[in-house]
Amino acid sequence: MKTTVSVIKADIGSVSGHCVSHPALMEKCDEVLANALETGILEDYYITRCGDDIDLIMTHRNGELNEEVHKTAYDAFIQATEIARDLKLYGAGQDLLSDTFSGNVKGMGPGCAEMEFKERRSDPVIVYCMDKTEPGAFNLPIFKIFADPFNTAGLVIDPSLHDGFSFEVFDVMEHKKVVLDCPEEMYDLLALIGSTGRYVIKRVFKKNGEIAAAVSTDKLNMLAGEYVGKDDPVAIVRAQSGFPANGECVEPFAFPHMVSGWMRGSHNGPMMPTSQEEANPIRFDGPPRVVGLGFQVTDAKLVGPVDLFDDPAFDETRRQSANIATYIRRHGPFEPHRLPSEEMEYTSLPGVMEKLEPRFEDMDDD
Ligand code: 13P
Ligand code: 13P
Ligand code: MG
Ligand code: MG
Ligand code: MG
Predict the structure, then answer these.
(1) pLDDT at 219
(2) Arithmetic mean of pLDDT over the chain
(3) Residue 338 three-state SS
(4) For Mg(2+) 4, which residues are the binding ones (predicted)?
(5) Which of 41, 190, 224, 349 is a Cys-bridge partner for 228, taking CB atoms 3.0 to 4.6 Å apart?
(6) What percent of the chain is modeled with pLDDT above 70?
């Protein structure tokens, strides 16, 4: 019998501004998911938040893109949005683009990462939740976990990892996908995924086809046909026994890599790994956060989690991230702190251009 892990997330309102989800919203989600547990749709669940995004981590026997599971998550978000509206929370219902459910959450606003697998004798699974960034923020850490031998010792010294992994990459602009093998096609893979706003790692597989990782790649700007927001992403990664070790899966986050998002979804800034409790992006609405939760998946139940970045060994990373934030912030409205105009979530440029249009003159040749 197979087990499915589904992580469905949405920002449905926060306090104050875009900082933190209100506990009442999480309680409502808990109520809806507890009901789904009782009716047998779910086997288990755990609810967390990263900043203003609520993450529903669910296990069940129904496979990926299951209508009942997706409807459960959507109903939870819809019902919690009513509370968000009553409390006049900021951005109430922000990520819900439609109030009529049609089969699954694809294209409806929430982000989703899912994987179905046959449980091993022991099956460690890690869920990462990010805020104030975009799905491409996972490209660098997922690459390092599954393809960089300087990160993952197992690629070199563990025979069960030595063959490497295959990466499924989405071109989110053209709606196309390609699968590239590592280490054989590593340079081609890097040529694509270095463009984090366009090429996004969606899944990673072992060479025998077994699923190793899945990332939510839903981009609100593409879904809505216009730029309504970056989608704060989630990822699921399997660890140990044929996959990278738990410690190899958290190691890339010891480097506070630059991602786009942060203030108004329009700035580059350093990622900061934190505990669930400290996932409160406050300074300039950031810097961007990542939370990591380590579970054992046992007969479709979630044992755990361990709050993976609640480890003093990541204190130095957090300090570095804060220092980088101070440095890059001093650029104010200049690139590369501010994103290039075509990638900004907010822009006054068309209005400014319209106003200045009559004052632009041809340049003399001198
Ligand atoms: P243990 O010897 O504690 O099982 O650890 C093995 C391992 O692979 C750690 O990364
Ligand atoms: P969220 O995408 O987390 O809602 O943040 C939006 C924003 O504009 C933060 O400044
Ligand atoms: Mg928000
Ligand atoms: Mg958010
Ligand atoms: Mg966002």
Answers:
(1) 65
(2) 95
(3) strand
(4) 231
(5) 224
(6) 96
What's the number of CA atoms in the CB half-sphere (13 Å) around residue 290? 36
Q: How many Cβ atoms from other residues are within 10 Å of residue 51's Cβ?
A: 27
Q: Would residue 244 count as lying in a domain?
A: yes
- Please report, as a single letter, which amino acid is at residue 311: D
- Are 173 and 211 in the same domain? yes
Domain containing 58 equals 1-117
Same domain, 123 and 113: no
Shared domain for 144 and 99, answered yes or no, is: no
Cβ atoms 90, 17 nearer than 8 A: yes
- Note whether 268 and 167 are within 8 A (CB): no
Number of domains in the chain: 2
Q: What is the number of other CB atoms lying within 10 angstroms of the CB of residue 190?
A: 14
Residues with CB under 6 A from ligand 2: 11, 18, 51-52, 91, 94, 131-132, 229-230, 232, 263-265, 285
* Residue 227 confidence (pLDDT) above 60: no
* Nearest partner of 290 among 178, 147, 180, 135, judged by Cα: 135
Query: ipTM of the assembly?
Result: 0.89
Q: Does 302 share its domain with 203?
A: yes
Of 11, 44, 55, 123, catalytic: 11
Q: CA distances (Å), 263 to each of 40, 49, 132, 344, in order?
A: 41, 19, 8, 10
